[in-house]
Amino acid sequence: MAIKIYKPTTAGRRKHSVTDYSVLTAESRAPRSLLVSKKRSGGRNNAGKITVRHIGGGFKKIMRVVDSKRDKLDIPARISSLEYDPGRSAFLSLLVYKDGEKRYIISPAGAKIGDVITASLKPVEIKPGNRTQILNIPAGTFVHDIELTPGRGGQMAKGAGNYAVITAVEGGMAILKLPSGEIRKVFGNSMATVGQVSNTDHMNVRIGKAGRKRLMGIRPAVRGKVMNPVDHPHGGGEGRNPIGMKYPKTPWGKHALGVHTRKKNRSSSKFIVQRRKK
């Protein structure tokens, strides 16, 4: 995939770039059964109070229902189109199975229209888009859309350009290096898709202007240090001041950076071999 840069006709144009969507070719309108309208909350709860800040506005989004389980096993499917999804950074592939059913999956990098892919519990050809149990995939292979619990559907490495690396498979468990740098064990009979997620240049896109962020549904965030003391722990002082505290705080006085949010007694902690780097 590539990044598109425009002539600097305005200050916003000078600094922003967009994903080149010319590689996407939707052959027809998406099936209505695979579309769902996303309801907007504005960051408010049922009482109308803001519970999550900096959310509001944004363009209307029609989401695609993505098949994370790939439970139509041993049935070849042809990629009929590569499409954009407003709810995620990765592109989607529309699969057409031999029985005529259509389903969306997260498109792997390098997928082309006409490619035939399959999902199976048995060993499959190691090519992008094929899905099988991790114990059937050789070490060193890039995988994505990985199950944590067998049968639950893909939960890890689903964003644009992401992939995990299988480092070893032993004793019914596989050891993966995740995109965050974390090394963890996963059940060997969990399913994973071979290859890297599409739209690998997504990380290089520059937003460029505030209005584009508003179209994404993200409202402005004001720094605490420019507020008054009544509004934020960082506020107050004459002129430009540093935070002036031992550690940064949230508006409610809690630690803002470097806080471990993972519960100490979480049952899945035993699967983590090495925590991600700070």
UniProtKB/TrEMBL annotation:
Pfam families: Ribosomal_L2_C (PF03947), Ribosomal_L2_N (PF00181)
Positions of the Large ribosomal subunit protein uL2 RNA-binding domain: 43-119
Lineage start: Bacteria, Candidatus Doudnaibacteriota
Superkingdom classification of source: Bacteria
NCBIfam families linked to this entry: rplB_bact
Record's function text: One of the primary rRNA binding proteins. Required for association of the 30S and 50S subunits to form the 70S ribosome, for tRNA binding and peptide bond formation. It has been suggested to have peptidyltransferase activity; this is somewhat controversial. Makes several contacts with the 16S rRNA in the 70S ribosome.
UniProtKB keywords: Ribonucleoprotein, Ribosomal protein, RNA-binding, rRNA-binding
GO biological process: cytoplasmic translation
Biased composition (Basic residues): 260-278
Family of this protein: Belongs to the universal ribosomal protein uL2 family.
InterPro entries noted in UniProt: NA-bd_OB-fold (IPR012340), Rib_uL2_dom2 (IPR014722), Ribosomal_uL2 (IPR002171), Ribosomal_uL2_bac/org-type (IPR005880), Ribosomal_uL2_C (IPR022669), Ribosomal_uL2_dom3 (IPR014726), Ribosomal_uL2_RNA-bd_dom (IPR022666), Translation_prot_SH3-like_sf (IPR008991)
Residue span, Large ribosomal subunit protein uL2 C-terminal domain: 126-255
Protein name (Swiss-Prot/TrEMBL): Large ribosomal subunit protein uL2
